[in-house]
């Protein structure tokens, strides 16, 4: 078994990484060596199998227009089957340059202008944009908090789904930013509501490979044949293997009529369901050769969660840390510090802490912070010391 290096952070401040660009815009004089904890990519080097495989590939490959080939379809199908027990067919798949891209196309394909798309805030910001920028109507069904854990408001969902004008549920599973991994029972209950009222499900499952100990991921479409036909699933190796820059995502639509509708919408935007040549190859390598790298990465991420929880429990008990069931994104509640939204963000920047402010996930996220745990532990602990200093100066 290979032992991978998760203690050395790659230098990304020199390679035009988006996180660093945003950080320097917020604080032009930020000191050297500060690592931002915002955008959801990893401060780990890519799996060596992918680096070596791509290096070998480009020695002979022509990097022209490319399509998904048999090896790509086999890799994706093998991954979903062995990890989630879901058998998929090649004709159900279409590739897009990213899940966000797919969400925009899907919102427009499965709801008409002015019709409702239901979301469950606080939620990943592109969910809002995918609805509003395509002229669809945003319908909010906020998550509820019970005993320090987020749950679905089924009563509200039933009410909203029953309205004829609401056609689509845009669903995040596992949930970003709260870290929830929905149980099979939760999904069954939600799925029954959607089927009963004819609401189509777009399930963003980009974080499905990032599941913490004691939890199991269930793909919405794997629950029943009815739900499979009523669901569009979005997956990608991008979060799992730190490949977001290759812009390769996979959309699974078993229903032929809905697949045609999606393709028509994509064609209107000049998109033909192709991605770049390196993306296809990287995905194939990731899904066939990188299971062990992922297992070790998950151990590091969960250890980071436990370290953060212990540190804040001792040094900053005012900050409430939510359980991490899935994703590598830690959701934290800072309301007890009594800071306004503006003051909270200012204090973070002053302390050289560049997290994702909770308000970007909707009003329900105000007073929260989202912190990226996919980094070497030492970098995390240095950031937590700065956080403790910020709290001590005005908590």
Structural commentary:
The chain is α/β, with parallel strands linked by helices and 395 residues long. It is 41% helix and 13% strand. The chain is built from 14 helices and 13 strands. It has helices spanning 18-26, 48-57, 70-84, 99-110, 126-132, 154-161, 184-197, 225-229, 238-241, 256-268, 277-289, 291-315, 341-350, 377-392; strands spanning 93-96, 116-119, 137-140, 144-146, 149-151, 166-172, 200-204, 231-235, 249-252, 320-321, 329-333, 356-357, 368-372. The strands form 3 sheets. The chain has a 7-stranded mixed β-sheet, with helices on both faces. Helix 4 packs parallel to helix 5 and helix 12 packs parallel to helix 14. The radius of gyration is 21 Å and the shape is globular.
Q: Specify the structural class.
A: alpha/beta
Let me know the number of strands. 13
Silhouette: globular
Tally of contiguous helical segments: 14
Low-confidence stretches: none
Q: Summarize the helix and strand pattern as letters.
A: HHHEHEHEEEHEHEHEHEHHHEEHEEH
Beta fraction of the residues?
5-15%
Strand order of the largest sheet: 1-9-8-7-6-2-3
Distance between the termini: 46 Å
Give the integer mean of the pLDDT values.
Answer: 96
Largest sheet: 7 strands, mixed
The percent range for helix content is 40-55%
What's the alpha carbon Rg, rounded to whole Å?
A: 21 Å
């Amino acid at each position: 078994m290979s032992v991978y290096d998760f203690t050395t952070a790659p230098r990304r401040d020199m390679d035009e990484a988006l996180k660093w660009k945003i950080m320097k815009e917020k604080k032009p004089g930020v000191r050297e060596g500060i690592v931002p904890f915002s955008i959801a990519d990893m401060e780990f080097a890519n799996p060596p199998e992918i680096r070596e495989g791509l290096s070998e590939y480009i020695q002979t490959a022509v990097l022209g227009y490319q399509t998904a080939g048999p090896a790509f379809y086999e890799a994706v199908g093998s991954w979903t089957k062995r990890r989630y027990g879901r058998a998929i067919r090649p004709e159900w798949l279409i590739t897009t340059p990213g899940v966000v891209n797919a969400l925009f196309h899907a919102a427009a394909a499965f709801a008409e202008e002015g019709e409702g798309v239901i979301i469950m805030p606080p939620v990943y910001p592109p969910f809002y944009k995918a609805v509003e920028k395509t002229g669809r109507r945003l319908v909010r069904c906020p998550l509820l908090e019970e005993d320090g854990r987020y749950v679905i408001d089924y009563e509200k969902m039933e009410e909203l789904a029953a309205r004829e004008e609401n056609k689509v549920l845009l669903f995040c599973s596992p949930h970003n930013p709260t870290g929830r991994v929905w149980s099979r029972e939760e999904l069954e209950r939600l799925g029954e509501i959607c089927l009963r009222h004819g609401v189509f499900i777009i399930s963003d499952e980009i974080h499905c490979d990032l599941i913490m100990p004691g939890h199991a991921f269930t793909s919405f479409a794997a629950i029943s044949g009815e739900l499979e036909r009523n669901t569009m699933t979005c997956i990608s190796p991008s979060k799992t293997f730190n490949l977001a820059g290759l812009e390769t995502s996979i959309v699974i639509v078993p229903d032929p009529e809905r697949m045609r509708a999606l393709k028509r919408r994509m064609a209107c935007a000049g998109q033909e369901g192709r991605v770049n040549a390196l993306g296809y190859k990287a995905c194939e390598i990731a899904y066939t050769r990188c299971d062990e790298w992922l297992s070790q990465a998950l151990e590091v991420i969960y250890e980071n969660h436990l370290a953060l929880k212990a540190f804040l429990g001792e040094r900053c008990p005012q900050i409430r840390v939510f359980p991490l069931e899935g994703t590598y994104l830690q959701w934290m509640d800072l309301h007890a510090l009594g800071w306004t939204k503006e003051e909270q963000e200012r204090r973070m920047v002053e302390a050289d802490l560049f997290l994702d402010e909770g308000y970007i996930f909707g009003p329900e996220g105000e007073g929260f912070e989202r912190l990226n745990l996919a980094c070497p532990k030492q970098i995390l602990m240095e950031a937590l010391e700065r956080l403790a200093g910020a709290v001590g100066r005005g908590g």
